[in-house]
Write a structure and sequence with these properties.
CATH architecture: 3-Layer(aba) Sandwich
Number of strands: 12
Shape: globular
Number of domains: 1
Bound molecules: guanosine-5'-diphosphate, calcium ion
Order of helices and strands: EHEEEHHHHEEEHEHEHHEHHEHEH
Distance between the termini: 9 Å
Length: 331
């Protein structure tokens, strides 16, 4: 296999990609050529305009992680970051004060915003930003159109009993600590795939769904009209890795998001939600953690080739082994 396409969110997707690239470079993934090319289709529905700047959290997490510029402890933003800009903005009492813009990070958003203002589409802006970072992948936004995930949360003060906040406000300010009653992805139905996205899926030798959030990362990517159809139709095998281990999401807020859309918070629940391509879904194979081996029967019955292997992304070696297991499922 030569051409691999991965549909990625931020942290979970980026860590998986790091392991995949490690595996390719160390030739530890049977079935993948050492010169295999990886294309990443990244979620952009987390994007937000703050203080006049366009911020693309998932694109940047993938770019910084693979380019070795990420803060490894936070898992987002730049290493050795300083926060003077944020402190100054706070001194002016301008909202939102809850969104952390680091000084180094701001440079990325300034370049992006200037290029967007000059008329370049996000896909070309992303390509330009990636020239600085040696990511080892081709990074594509899922769409050049503005798409934003919003989350309905309980609000007693509102006549409807709920209020809708931007996804970033739900995650960063509310820390996903209140229930998500609904997820609304504004602009999704009217969006179209960015240049190269459909081709990257239809012409791939392998399509991977990393353990990214099934609702607000992979779900939004698949929701761009044309992308799900491309995944359903591609001749390449499609294999996914469960982001849920032992009924929890390891880190992040997949539990809240799955609950909001009525999907069981389990490895099998997510696999069945994606569904087998033999029955109109998007998957041929599904990896679950060893802790969830009891769910293999249900997945098999639904037409999914499933296997239980360790799924904690503790280091690039362990993660490369996950990628190898995913490929072994459909080789
Ligand atoms: P985000 O955009 O930063 O939220 O990142 P993603 O959507 O790409 O991935 C977030 C998801 O990754 C979380 O909801 C977790 O379910 C999953 N995740 C995080 N760490 C691990 C891990 O070590 N193993 C597995 N299997 N999943 C993980
Ligand atoms: Ca994200």
């Amino acid at each position: 296999m030569q051409r691999v396409t991965v549909l990625s969110g931020g942290m979970g997707g980026a860590r998986f990609l790091q392991g995949l690239l490690h595996g390719i470079r160390s030739r530890s993934i049977v079935g993948l050529a050492p010169q295999a090319e990886v294309t990443v289709v990244a979620n952009t529905a987390d994007d937000i305009w703050v203080h006049g700047l366009k911020v693309c959290p998932d694109l940047d997490t993938v770019m910084y992680t693979l380019g070795d510029g990420i803060d490894p402890d936070r898992g987002w933003g730049r290493r050795d970051e300083t926060w003077s800009v944020r402190t100054e903005l706070e001194a002016y009492e301008v909202e939102p004060t809850w969104f952390g813009l680091g000084d180094r990070d701001v440079a990325t958003h300034l370049v992006r915003t200037q290029m967007l203002d000059a008329g370049y589409p996000l896909s070309q802006v992303t390509q330009a930003l990636c020239r600085r970072w040696d990511t080892g992948v081709r990074l594509l936004p899922m769409t050049d159109d503005r798409v934003e995930t919003h989350v309905a949360v309980p609000d007693d003060a509102s006549p409807s009993g709920r209020r809708v906040v931007h996804f970033q406000e739900y995650w960063v300010r509310l820390r996903a600590a209140v229930p998500a009653e609904a997820v609304v992805v504004v602009g999704l139905d009217d969006s179209s795939p960015a240049p190269g996205v459909v081709e990257a899926i239809t012409e791939a030798d392998l399509v991977l769904l990393p353990p990214s959030n099934p609702v607000v990362s992979v779900g939004t990517i698949l929701g761009v009209p044309g992308i799900r159809d491309a995944v359903v139709a591609t001749k390449a095998p499609v294999v996914g890795v469960s982001p849920i281990i032992g009924g929890t999401h390891v880190r992040g807020m997949a539990e809240q998001m799955l609950t909001a859309i009525g999907v069981d918070v389990s490895a099998a629940g997510v696999g069945l939600h994606y569904g087998s391509r033999s029955t109109g879904g998007v998957l041929d194979g599904w990896l679950v953690d060893e802790a969830d081996a009891d769910q293999l029967g249900a997945l098999d019955a639904a037409g999914l080739a499933a296997r239980a292997v360790p799924l904690y992304m503790t280091d690039p070696e362990a993660t490369a082994a996950m990628a190898a297991a995913a490929i072994d499922l459909v080789r």
